[in-house]
Amino acid sequence: MEYKEVQKIAKDTIIYARKTIQSGMTLADIRELCEKKLMELGADSFWYWDIGAFVFSGDETTISVSGKEYQTSNRIINENDIITIDLSPQKNSIWGDYARTLIVENGVVVDDDMCSNEEWKKGINTEKNLHAIMREFVTPQTTFEDLYYHMNKVIEEHGYINLDFLGNLGHSIVKQKSDRIYIEKGNTTCLGDVAFFTFEPHISMSGSKYGYKRENIYYFKKGKLMEL
């Protein structure tokens, strides 16, 4: 499957980033190493405003901005820090779309379950839980709007807020950016009527200065939800 191949490029790049990122690097360094790895692994371009890696750290992890306006800051990674990376590789007009929040402790990225900062660990685990709840909730007949209302309610019940600048939680995977449809109110298209869709809640605990993001691409196969 071509889409699985491109998504694997993004997943493998995050694995590489986990092993490579260390304190003292700038966000520009991280963006460069991610975009270089995406191309090394087979991407031929970046579909979202020609940016392969959107990178934020610290209190900038709550920032939600269009790729048209994104600027990589000159922030330096601290000994103990939080980073979000959102990747947009493309190969032969096929998209990948994948995001993760990473935790740096004592200068290196640690496994999620080894994070000693309880607030950050809770945020990452909440993201994982949101994906699990979404998977249990959806069917091919679930509309994008149904998913929007249900998951925003779940986010609120968990004590978090939706940070997305448009308020949505994901979008369809297509060939042209302008053709995307979103997990938003008013969109009555059924999830099963698109080939692939992302689920990418960008959340923060109310009153906190830190944000979390986790993005996967999903699709239905014989009525069963699958992760790309």
From TrEMBL:
<protein>
    <submittedName>
        <fullName>Metallopeptidase family M24</fullName>
    </submittedName>
</protein>
<dbReference type="InterPro" id="IPR036005">
    <property type="entry name" value="Creatinase/aminopeptidase-like"/>
</dbReference>
<dbReference type="InterPro" id="IPR050659">
    <property type="entry name" value="Peptidase_M24B"/>
</dbReference>
<feature type="domain" description="Peptidase M24">
    <location>
        <begin position="3"/>
        <end position="219"/>
    </location>
</feature>
<dbReference type="InterPro" id="IPR000994">
    <property type="entry name" value="Pept_M24"/>
</dbReference>
<dbReference type="Pfam" id="PF00557">
    <property type="entry name" value="Peptidase_M24"/>
</dbReference>
